[in-house]
Automatic annotation (TrEMBL):
Gene3D superfamilies: MFS general substrate transporter like domains (1.20.1250.20). Its main location: membrane. This is MFS transporter. The chain crosses the membrane at residues 12-33, 45-66, 73-92, 98-120, 141-159, 165-185, 206-228, 248-267, 274-292, 298-321, 333-351, 357-375. Pfam families: MFS_1 (PF07690). The keyword Mitochondrion does not apply.
Amino acid sequence: MKEKTSIGKILPVMFGFFIMGFVDVVGIATNYVKLDFNLSDTVANLLPVMVFLWFLVFSVPTGLLMNKIGRKNTVMLSMAITFLAMLVPLIAYNFTVILVAFALLGIGNTIIQVALNPLLTNVVSGDKLASSLTLGQFVKAIAAFLGPIIAGFAAGSMGNWKLIFPLYAGITLLSTIWLWSTSIIKEEQEEKNVSILGCFSLLKDSYILAFFVGILLVVGIDVGLNITIPKFLMERCSIPLEQAALGISLYFVARTVGTFLGAIILAKYAPAKIFVYSIILGVFGFIGMLFVTNLVVLSVFIFIVGFACANLFSIIFTYALKRQPERANEVSGLMIMGVSGGAIALFLGMVSDYVGSQMGGVAVLLVCLLYFFYLGRLFTKTDAK
């Protein structure tokens, strides 16, 4: 039986979501690296691929690792790897070193995303899980929102956007110490006799399979927008990168507002209904982006898209955990493997290079969003049971 939830338990776990948000710096970093080394979209987008490839490789093994060393220890391992990743760019600045740094960041982020969501279930009650996961995404969104601003300030005022890395390293170290010193988190033991094949057997459940595809696409949309927005604004509005990069911050402001409101709304209303309303709003925003060239109006549509997509991940994740709660670690590992959908950035780069416009990439993301109408039906069926 879980102990009564206390703020002392929740805070260090929630701050872990802030560290989780560091991965979103790959969006603005890709744009700076492309500019610094004069790369094509396809080559530059290898950077986010290098990050999200590891979600495909390490997610399921991490779910099994949690069964052996515990969720809290797994989270701390992820923070140690993230700390190391932040130090690598301080050694040298070339494309190879940056690829290595973001590979480590991807590995660390894979582990923390797999472990932190189930760890949250140890400190909150089941009926508050959807709103708590959304609150975690709100904290993550704050980190994502601040990333482009910090990088832009470092580039503009200090002449070096890479100063963001030592700052992130220091914050990661503090978070690790805080969680390590929190000994009051009690973990429930799960079945130890599990395997990778057993974990993948979860996909035989048609609902789990649909949720997995949903995670693939929702992360693909999020990363795709993170990478594409600055280039899209530069193309459509003829503005420099420093100004266009603020479009990412606007997108994450919208996500931050959306997750904050979502944490409140999802505690009171059915997640399935909020999910469907969000999709409708998101489709409207994407269509607006495709047909508008005015910077102010385009910014409004970017905000709408960010707001609409804010709670999709946490709702899908919640329904996945509810589907088979007795196998939460394995379900989490499988779902977070879906975060490898961020590698869609490479495909978006290829599409943009092929059509000669960022419009192609935005159109692909709109098509991805349409899949969620199907998920909305599954959520409604699940709630009806």
